[in-house]
């Protein structure tokens, strides 16, 4: 994966500033590790996992592995290889006897079988295996075998129904962004395994194409078919579809893909705002203004960067997304998840203090920013490791009450201003908060 | 129709009561069980026992606890060989058969009985409560009054950290959210989110909550 030189972006955002942001993210990610993997509470639109905070083998490993692989490719610094191998070993240990990954369900908590999470983990593993094979390192098979086992047993064995990859073995819904992630995993797998996966890839592509909107304010978006009658058009999931189509285009350059990608990017560009990228649109065309994503917007930046060589990225989109990510990064290196959770789903943009779920830095979101920023042409100088992250302190609200969110190198804490009560405290690396009074 | 193998992980935020009981067995993947087990394991974590006995006759419930305690470094005990083998085969976790061994703690998801209390020094238990919305929807479906059972437990344990799940405030907002869903998607998402913020009840209204979780210490 080559890095992206950005003349315009460099004028405003010096490469060294971006490099520092990546190093801070790396330091923060490492602060979130336990001996079994990356930990931490999770905030999401659907549900949040604020009680169970233990290691999970979910899509966080896609961005972490892919980010470290890209950094190694671009710098040949062995630290990034070590980091990638450490993450890959978490996955090897986290594979269950049936091929699934331990606790892969992200916001739903401790449960295997998460989609698209297991396919995302395969992408991370296969990108790492590919790097190792290119370097003549025979250990690539160790990681490839784990991904292959998951692909055969779960993706092809349990989720494939002849028309696409299902939401779950018991839920026949074909969700476009989940098919997109699976498509990406299969494109990588096909290359490494020398096994024709085109039938699966083609069907997944059809799922994505059939879900794209063509008219009105939602034009270019892919509808999340799992939302039933609400038919939500969601930005971050559209971005993941765009990224998958770009990877497919490299393999199979069909002109139709460029049109779909271009429309997708036009939609994504409409979602940009200074405080984050708008969540998306309801089926009736009303905009969902809250929350506005921050760290998850890394997937929009990745889509914009990957589309840039094809001349498909709207002007100013990359710079806006860079600005968003870098401006919001904490001193501790993490990034807030969003802004506006206090009025989730509302069409009028929320204006008050951020909510606890907004300010919470989440590994499975920050990996998206890390992966995208790693794609840039970074200017590292000297030692690439930073010291222990500094403390962050942010005013926020929870259930309408003013609070303070503290992040230190070893913990996260939410303190209600009135009475100075600690209502949430989680020590990094542990599976549960030490205080939970939310 | 849900079965024991059908987690209720839907794209919608919540499907209250789905999969709650299937064929007489508790579905550990249902939302009520997931949130209940999370808070029970949180309570257990606070006491840092070295060993814990999972007191349940449901293989799926034991596995669901295993997923949550896998990284806690507890020595885990399960009731019998079938459970041990199931946990080993599906999760790759090493657990032991309880037999006569006495663990530091007992985790009792829907399995606490005032007539046969565990022997462990610490218990973390959950039970269903008839004094809740459930009895309004399905009269007679819940046979236990949480405060009555807990009064008996109190004879042998000092009860602390009582938390209710599905308290009246949650149910009221959740009902309103569902009523609005058809007309106003934004209101539905907003209200269902507010409801979820009130899923756990730390105050006195645990007495009117559908599921009650508590810790007992000797």
Q: What level of helicity do the residues of chain A show?
A: 40-55%
| CATH topology tier name of chain B | Rossmann fold
From the 3D coordinates, which CATH architecture of chain B would you assign?
3-Layer(aba) Sandwich
Write down the domain tally of chain B.
1
Task: Determine the structural class of chain B based on helices, strands and strand pairing.
Answer: alpha/beta
Largest sheet of chain B: 8 strands, mixed
Q: Counting H and I runs of at least 4 residues, what is the number of helices of chain A? A: 14
Name the average pLDDT of chain A: 95
Question: From the coordinates shown, what is the CATH architecture of the largest domain in chain A?
Answer: Alpha/alpha barrel
Name the helix and strand elements of chain B from N-terminus to C-terminus, one letter apiece.
EEHEHEHEEEHHEHHEE
Structural class of chain A: alpha+beta
Adjacency order of strands in the biggest sheet of chain A: 7-8-9-10-11
The backbone outline of chain B, from C-alpha atoms, is globular
Uncertain spans of chain B: 1-24
Radius of gyration of chain B over alpha carbons? Answer: 18 Å
Give the total of domains of chain A.
2
Tell me the fraction of residues in β-strands of chain B, as a range. Answer: 15-25%
The count of β-strands of chain B is: 10
Could you explain the architecture of this structure?
The complex is a heterodimer of chains A (438) and B (218). With 438 residues, chain A is α+β, with helices and mostly antiparallel strands. Chain A has two domains: 383 residues, Glycosyltransferase, CATH 1.50.10.10; 48 residues, no CATH class. Chain A has 14 helices and eleven strands. A five-stranded antiparallel β-sheet of chain A has the order 7-8-9-10-11, with no helix packed on it. Chain A has a four-stranded antiparallel β-sheet with strand order 3-4-5-6. A two-stranded antiparallel ribbon of chain A has the order 1-2. In chain A, strand 1 and strand 2 form a beta hairpin. The longest helix of chain A has 20 residues. Chain B has one domain: Rossmann fold (3-Layer(aba) Sandwich), CATH 3.40.50. Chain B has seven helices and ten strands. An eight-stranded mixed β-sheet of chain B has the order 5-4-3-6-7-10-8-9, with helices on both faces. Chain B is globular. At the A-B interface, loops of A face helix 1, helix 2, helix 3 and helix 7 of B.
